[in-house]
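Onboarding guide, step 5: your first structure request.
Type a short instruction followed by the sequence, for example:

Predict the 3D structure of this protein.
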Amino acid sequence: LTPRILELGYSYLASQPWWRHAQKIVAETGKQMGCACAVGVLDRDCVAYVAYTPGGESATVLRAVGTRLPAVATAMGRVLLAHLPANDVAALLRAHPPARLTPFTLTEPADIAKDLERVRDKGYSTVYQQLEVGISAAYQLAGQTMACNMMHGDAQEGFQAFIDKRTPQWSPPK
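The system replies with structure tokens like these:
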């Protein structure tokens, strides 16, 4: 997409009479609750955010107006899916099989249908580690990767050169 297309889309959205009101309500609600707050619409298998405020400091996936995220992996997406006829949801999942974004992402249609039933009954949805892993899991993965990289000779040379305040002597490329 070019910036011009994005500008056209944003111009259209901003021209809608409800949009400024929605954005203001989302911002006030997020501030009062101390958490992210959003308005979105279902677009095939994704949620398209049309109003958003971070509201807190815990969000690790940054969203903005226009962000599209997989519906089955987000709370808003599950609320929207839960209120579609079951046949429509089944057809959507067949046409767009959910990707396993984390080890915890629901991808089986039966599991998703069961969760959507729970969402309908409760009237809201919460998700955890469906779209992204939690920060502790990310640190663990990063730590394992760093430990593996530290076993490489160039990594050891780089650190020693830093400590010695000298230019590293890298291995020749293979």
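Each response can be followed by summary notes, for example: The chain has a mean pLDDT of 81.
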